[in-house]
Amino acid sequence: MDLSCLFRPSSMAVIGVSTSHDSHPANVIYNKNHLRYPVQTFAVNPKGGRLNREPLYRSVADIEIAVDLAVIAVRSRFVPDVVAQCIAKGIKGAVIISGGFAESGRKDLQNQVADMAARADFPFVGPNCLGIYSPDAVDTFFLPGERIIHPKKGNIGFVSQSGGVLVDQMVKFAGEGIGVSAAVSIGNKACLRETHLIDWFEQDLGTRVIAFYIEGFDCREGREFIQKAQTCSKPIVVLKAGKTAKGIAAASSHTASMAGDYRVFSQVMQQHCVAEADTEYELTSFCEALSCYPKGIFGNVGIVSVSGGHGVVAADACGHHGLHIPKIAAATADTIRARLSPEIQQIATLDNPLDLTGSCVDADILTSVRHLSRDRNLDCILALLLPYSPGISADIGAKLSQVARNEGKPLIAYVPKEDKYKIITEGFELNRIPVASSVEGAVLMAKALKRCRPW
Amino acid sequence: MVTPRMQQIIADAQPIGWVLEPFAKELLAHGKLTIPKGILTDSLDTARKFLAAAKHPVVIKAVSADIVHKTELQAVVTGIQDPEILASQMQRLLALKGCRQVLVEEMIFGIEILVGAKNDVQFGPVVVLGPGGTGVELYNDTAIRLAPVTPADVYSMVDSLGAKPVFEGFRGRPGVNMEELTRLVVTFSHLLMDLEPYFSSIDLNPVICTPDRCVVADARIMLLP
Prior knowledge:
The complex is a heterodimer of chains A (455) and B (225). Chain A is α/β, with parallel strands linked by helices and 455 residues long. Chain A contains 17 helices and 19 strands. Chain A has a seven-stranded mixed sheet with strand order 3-4-2-1-5-6-7, with helices on both faces. In chain A, helix 3 links the parallel strand 5 and strand 6. Chain A starts with a helix and ends in a 6-residue tail after the last helix. Residues 246-260 of chain A have low confidence and may be disordered. Chain B is an alpha+beta fold and 225 residues long. Chain B has two domains: 38-106, ATP-grasp fold, A domain (Dna Ligase, domain 1, 2-Layer Sandwich); 109-223, ATP-grasp fold, B domain (D-amino Acid Aminotransferase, Chain A, domain 1). Helix content of chain B is 35%, strand content 28%. In chain B, the strands form two sheets. In chain B, strands 1, 6, 7, 8, 9, 10 and 11 form a seven-stranded antiparallel sheet that branches. Chain B has a four-stranded antiparallel sheet with strand order 2-5-3-4, covered by helices on one side. The relative contact order of chain B is 0.18. Classes of the chains: A alpha/beta (455), B alpha+beta (225).
């Protein structure tokens, strides 16, 4: 199914624009796309007339040019007629924002729309959703641009059963500097569902990781999801809600969604290499790590630190998250020690976790990461960089990235999140080495890679 | 493949909603799982002959549509070697509610394992593996996988259990024959796919594993309404 009409439309009609309420969802959507996105936007209202000196079309049929996308924000009882008009006009797909369908007991109305669309091969997102945010292309969220925090354009495709969680997660992505290729709120998913979006994001060159917020699946839908996930070439991350009995009750009254037995969900996801994040925070870490390293690891972590304490904290967190801190080979330790600067040669601790002490310089860190990367006992390296030490330069991020790229073993960095260290962070991130803003975050990134074995 | 005999067993059990142990075992045997040698009888004479022919102790179990969980009613008697005890216990079981026949089986000694299945609404058939016995709900030490499973899945299931050392051989006791357990779980998981339209959940508890085989010692198949 070609969904480019939804994610990269050249033209769109917003149906249901109000002549009297500026904050009507359709007006918000019309305004933001008309004013700020590279998409030709038409406002539709049966009354006709003008809105902000632009024409209001009585029907999509009156729009002079071909339209790719319809955004429908009219009362639910009018939706079937509007969809029929869109199909007649030859519009390629729709986002149905309107609520008042399965979630409030009108499954019949929803089925009527879904059947009509299926017959006409007319894909739509929703109903009862926010729709699609596709950076630099289109934004159907009915939230005013000045109120919402948009993550930059990036490589995470995010799909959510809840619009609210989606918006909130976008704030978290933006805070961590993670960008999205697109974010989709699928609402009641009467037509397009998770499995279709796996297909779309898999072929989308701008997407490296596909992330989902899931409350529950319909009957046997979980199996279809897994079958699709299993053959998908890109890492998939899920955040599940409805884990407890109370959570389940909330889920069933939410998006008419059925939350099932959580243990089944969790273990089946794990069986099929889908990384399940426990929290929103983990989701962010997982996305960042997997966008850099799609391949799996066994979870044997080597830790380099310039502070013994940080090494211990990281080792504890690794243990907590099921990662191993194996002994490094004696030859590795000997090789590293022989190449350390004289100031730390005698005082550095070269057991895993390695403590290079606060007297180390860039070259010591590069040497350690290079030779740990060559140690067969390890399949992932954490570098805990505390730029307070005088011997660490602003170039450490870029330099260490080159070592990691050369050696080919996943490297994850921790750098405190401070404006003055941004040059270090960017030195890593621009070379696609993930950076966490806490020790725990770095460990969670390593945990993400353990979603599957290396082959 | 669901054979005509399996169909028949399921159809016969439909009115009570679950398949009684002897028939559940017959169905599983059709599906190429190993079940103990045994007979279903109401005759003390037949039971005595079975005991005499068996080289090992026997176990007797009440078979009743009114007894879903046997432990609570002491409806299972293990380790019977003495014909007198066989007679008195058989009499007691036959007096239990709805019990017209008794299952007399060879007794198997080994590690007790739970192999279960659930027909999950979202995912369809899933296989459950864990240490077996009457306390399984207490510890909930189980691994769950989407059916059908591969041999690698079975190894990863055992690997994820708290009771993994028991499977590997604990404190001088022999462990489970992993090849046999793998064969059983993989075969069972394929059978589940065939039975998908019929079952809601299945308990094989316990499956008893000796160093050379894994035998389904008790079985309960709950049907979809």
